[in-house]
Design brief:
The chain has 203 residues and is an all-alpha fold. The chain contains 8 helices and no strands. It has one domain (2-145). It is elongated.
């Protein structure tokens, strides 16, 4: 799902994310005003609005996937702390749904009809989503770091770095993008450890 979301359609050169944020999708999630929305999407209709619309529909699949992952991690550790982490992850997914719906609404609107309330209806659930997601990352980081396995501790370290970058990213939104790198590294290690390695050993 991550590969699909980062594939076609791509945003055009006319889409310029503000405040040093490297990604147009992320920039729209945390847009503060109509000027930033204009820089990211341009006037309706536009190719960048259509690209954003397609990516939002794809993102609903991604939301289901990562909500399931948090539930699976909660079951893996089977503790109250893990249940709290899973609850944060699922709550983040719910906020993500509201964020996507708000983005889909704004994509249809000409800039002159786009209100600050519409922009806030994207930004507020987005910040709640990121806060909950990085709270979940911090909780699971603590759980993974308790384990003796080097692989588990590596995953925990990745989650901890992601959480630290993510919480700072709530202030400087560009860091939300960079928090995704250690988060992805931990996810890859998780897949290798629990999916790829057992399959190889069975052979």
């Amino acid at each position: 799902m991550i590969a699909i979301l980062n594939g076609a359609p791509q945003f055009s050169n006319a889409s310029i994310p503000p405040r040093g944020i490297p990604d147009s999708g992320l920039a729209l999630q945390v847009a503060r005003n109509i000027g930033e929305v204009d820089a990211i999407l341009g006037e309706a209709p536009s190719p960048d609005r259509e690209a954003m619309r397609i990516k939002q529909y794809l993102d609903f699949g991604f939301i289901a996937v990562y909500a399931g992952l948090y539930i699976a991690l909660g079951r893996l550790f089977g503790s109250r702390l893990a249940a709290a982490g899973a609850a944060c992850g699922v709550a983040a997914a719910i906020c993500d749904v509201f964020e996507n719906l708000a983005i889909l609404r704004i994509l249809k609107m000409p800039l002159r009809q786009t209100t600050q309330a519409m922009i806030d209806s994207i930004r507020h659930p987005s910040l709640a989503k990121w806060s909950l997601a990085f709270a979940a990352a911090a909780i699971f980081a603590a759980l993974f770091l308790r384990e003796k396995s080097k692989a588990m501790r590596f995953i925990g370290t990745c989650e901890a770095i992601a959480a630290a970058l993510g919480f700072y990213g709530l202030l400087d939104n560009a860091f939300l993008f960079w928090a995704g790198i250690p988060l992805l590294a931990g996810l890859v290690a998780l897949v290798v450890m629990f999916v790829a390695a057992p399959l190889i050993l069975r052979r």
